Amino acid sequence: xxxxxxxxxxxxxxxxxxxxxxxxxxxxxxxxxxxxxxxxxxxxxxxxxxxxxxxxxxxxxxxxxxxxxxxxxxxxxxxxxxxxxxxxxxxxxxxxxxxxxxxxxxxxxxxxxxxxxxxxxxxxxxxxxxxxxxxxxxxxxxxxxxxxxxxxxxxxxxxxxxxxxxxxxxxxxxxxxxx
Length: 179
Known about the structure:
The protein is mainly β. The protein has strands at 9-21, 26-39, 52-65, 68-80, 89-102, 107-120, 128-142, 145-160, 162-177.
């Protein structure tokens, strides 16, 4: 919000979802519900702190062959943090396109690009955008565990008091387990 203080928040999301498989190649996932954000800091006395706001998402996956998939996803969220100098209402739209290739039964290579726009409703703020490109390799150690390495480049543009562009390069390495 400014260079001197930041707000912390806790988010609870309740969504209902449906998965539909048109055929072996095409499937869709739809989720809709509500999200509640509790703010601390300057936004803690916000008109919208601890209130529920709508959110929704849709993803469509196309599998032209058994080991390749393309996924388009879009999501929408609404946030309102009106308080002493905080931003106020804003809508967030996120769109992404992802491709995954199962190179072998154990190795999955994926990459994706996404663009998020934040539509500021307060006249003092300009809309902001975020462009993300990511690349990731997963290796299945066993049925319930995999290791991964990834790279993500983010370009975030803010128009608050003056235009600022941030370029973020992030490397990740990790272990994923399912129970």
